[in-house]
Amino acid sequence: MKATFHYRHSMVNDGKKAENVFSVFPRFLDTPGLVEQDFRLLFGEGTANRFLEKWPTSLASKVIKQSHGLVPPLSSWVYCGKQSWLLKLRMVGIVTCLLFCICYHHLHKDKGGWVGTSVQQHLDKITQRTQPYLLAQGSIQSSIHAFFIVIDNYAIPCKATCSVGALDELFKARYVFGTSYSPPLTNFFTFLQTTVYNMDVGETKETPRVAELRARMLH
Question: Which residue of 99, 141, 201, 213 lies most exposed, with the fewest beta carbons within 10 A?
């Protein structure tokens, strides 16, 4: 995968070839860590390490206190269908608040109670192209044991087994696969990009709220 990185990156940047990246490089679908590897080849070790280095030591408490305006109201993400439910995760803080919105364990109700839906069953129900999001898998709500990055009808296994690490991989997938930020979460990811990863500062369009928060975080 390292040897074919430049060819793969050119595919991602070619609108006609980008959708074939998973058929040409199927290892993304069964080998955790390849998103992290390609991101490091793109931006280097320093940029790749920033989120996990900064978040627990200096930024988490600040962002939690001033997170208004970075993520949409949780009520706007509630979904309930006749055959399936999206089970919200009980989490605290801005990262886990975000995951509360986009990361879920897919369940359906049977005569014997709640039973799990497989990752493939979830993918089979996708009917439109989507920006990358996280899918959490676990036997019970409080015991998530695996995360996947879902892009269209593909599930890429995360190397991380915790929500913070999975979010780091989700952010990096946007650059590895040349996708856009999901519209409701653009402010949050733009904040991570410019404030935490220190990428394209001054070149990326920020909302006044994101710019204000970045100024507060860094001073």
Answer: 201
